[in-house]
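Blinded run. Sample ID left blank on purpose so nobody reads anything into the name before looking at the predicted structure. Input follows.
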Amino acid sequence: MNPGPEDPAGFRPGHRTRAGELGTWWSAVTADGRPGGALRFSPESVADPGARRRLAGAVTADLGLARGGRSGLLPIADLVAAGDDVWLLTAEPAAPTLADLLSEPPAAHGPGPGGAAAILVETAQTLLTLHAASLAHGALHPGTVVIAADGSALLAERGLAGALRDRPAAPEHDVAAWASLATELAARWAAPYPEAAGLLERAAATASARGLAQARDVLLAGRDLLPDGFAGRDRLAEAARRRQAEATLPPGPVPGAPLPDEGGIATLLPAAAGGGRAGGDESTVLGFGSGAPAETEAARIWRGGRDRSSGAASRGRRASRGRVRRGRTALASVIIALMVVAGVLVWLFREPADPGTPLAVTGVRVTAPKKPQGCGTTVRITGVLSTNGSAGRIRYQWRRSDRRTPTEQTEEVEAGRTSHEVTLLWTVRGDGDFRGIATLRVLSPLPKGGKLQGRATFVYRCKS
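Blinded prediction complete.
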């Protein structure tokens, strides 16, 4: 499988890898240039469509928690398939892990007992949130605790091992794993401080006897026994940044990296709210536009149910707004009128761009229809290129997620305009569900060493 410059799903592979129980973790760069992560599952573990369905269900549950404003899990961007490969894409790096920090020799800049307590308090709270939602992690150990750049502890791979093996995780296993983690941290990071080590060991014993909530409270109540309180989180942040800096390499694809071209991938997550279709394990094959490549396994999408309802909260906020007093309304009207007048004056007296100034593109914005598109639809995707107002030529490309080769185009821009609109028409036919990703990338002019691109997604649903 040939590596592509961006992929999967807009993610670009990095140079760092680490082996895990479920597959191989890769460092990655997201479509908007931020660091992320990508887990490539072992192909044999995801060969069964049922395993893929269960994976999608586990990821869907995590996304539901995130939409509810609950934190503590490594944020997930997507779950995609490409042939025999399945990738979990994360919106933040999946490294360093607690296992990475524990592998280092003791040093003065180590996180210490305060860092250990901070990790234990945060992971206990995350597990309590999961258990309250009738979920469990199922594979808690130092390799699945990610230390973020701000020093917070995020849990990765939640429920994935159980989904692949068709053995749902149980909360009591999480409690036992957390107690084991507390005992290990007491021995490794708190040994020079007997009172702090004793606090961590008491928390471990309390978890086994009375549960995580009481164990967390033991740590919080014993804060005075820690030599630096919970300031160890700052030391965790320092350690995480140091590990990332030591491993930093020039960005770009790795020769031989197994990341697929974006045109050969398909999301495994449901795109619409509500439950999945009754009957059948796979979605119906779709044909996307004219001249589409032959259907492959990568284009088949395994889906489960997901609820994306989000309107109730916003309606409640609108209903709770109080009545505004008349005097305040009048004052607001005057202020708005003055702002409008000022804006008109600025526009009238603005200086035109210097004819000798080269054209520069300063931003890219892409929009697509928010509502699901029906059978046989031509979807209109709009891109807006922001410029400095000079005249010139813009060279750009559209990349569709159902094709391997992008479409390159050139537009002449006249002076005096600071935005230029470009359009992609994408025709979708056939029965089934599909989520299309359109990426608009500027090729020239570009700032030195810069990259300008944006993307948008749409949902296609057809049941004839």
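Unblinding after everyone has recorded impressions. The mean pLDDT is 77.
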